[in-house]
Design a protein that fits this description.
Blueprint: H1 4-20, H2 46-62, H3 72-76, H4 85-96
Length: about 100
């Protein structure tokens, strides 16, 4: 089972890898747990968030953690779990404890 710090490392690596192929994102060296991923001032567009979510789900499945991050629960949440890497890690922890 991954802890929150391990999840953050995984998420940040996936986001950084994705942004490294995006020519229009110039601040990829400043990605941290509080960087806005999606939404106003986010570094990812809708295709970017889908791409990283698929990559995260795939990496977690490799270690027998099966989660659906694009569930109705995530989409209807008052506070998006996709806002920052930290909120996404906390959401994954929550899902694995259900």
């Amino acid at each position: 089972m991954l802890n929150k710090n391990d999840l953050l490392v995984l998420i940040l690596q996936i986001v950084t890898d994705y942004l490294s192929i995006e020519e229009n994102y110039r601040n990829k060296d400043t990605i941290d747990q509080h960087t806005v991923l999606f939404g106003e001032d986010g570094c990812l567009d809708s295709m970017g968030i889908v791409s990283i979510v698929v990559d995260i789900e795939d990496k977690l499945a490799e270690i027998d953690i099966n989660v659906n991050l694009m569930s109705d629960k995530a989409m209807s949440s008052k506070h998006s779990p996709f806002r920052t890497s930290l909120s996404l890690a906390e959401y994954i922890i929550e899902l694995t404890h259900e």
